Amino acid sequence: MYGIVEIPTIVLPDIKKIETVEIPIPTADVPYYTPMVVPPSDLRDQEDEPVKTEEEKPPEPPTLKIPFIKQPIPQPSTEVVVVAATTAITAVAATTLTQPIIEWIRKKVQKFLSDKITKWRKNLTNKKDSSKELKKE
Questions:
Q1: Cα distance between residue 104 and residue 2, in whole Å
Q2: Which phi and psi (to 5°) does residue 72 adopt?
Q3: Taking the alpha carbons of 63, 69, 71, 76 in that order, is the dihedral positive or negative?
Q4: 59: pLDDT confidence band, cut at 50, 70 and 90?
Q5: Of 81, 63, 88, which is closest to residue 73 (Cα–Cα)?
Q6: Closest by CA position to 40, among listed 51, 30, 31, 28
Q7: What's the 3-state SS for 6-67?
Q8: What is the pTM of this model?
Q9: What is the spatial distance between Cα 45 and Cα 39, in angstroms, rounded to a whole number?
Q10: 3-class secondary-structure state, position 137
């Protein structure tokens, strides 16, 4: 019933070695120049009076002294106080203005869901009653 099954084979040719060309790594000459010295624009003769430079110390930032804390606390800069106050005022205004809108939406959604649940319960009890009547018959 079954005969000999021949499995197909593939004859592959021998591998030939391919000669490759060797390419050298490129090199580049980095340009070099001798640095040029330029005198400063405020160059003066040494016989003139030497310029006195006084190191100005930056003023110490104002600090707050709190009675229960021993270490003084640095007072924030005007920019920081303005940004913090603006942020606080914006947050309070946004909350105050949106609260009535959110409450109105919440009431509408709650009423809608309550009506849907009531209707679902009513339909469920109607189905139970109708199935009981069918069983009696």
A1: 84
A2: -70, 145
A3: negative
A4: confident
A5: 63
A6: 51
A7: CCCCCCCCCCCCCCCCCCCCCCCCCCCCCCCCCCCCCCCCCCCCCCCCCCCCCCCCCEECCC
A8: 0.38
A9: 13
A10: coil
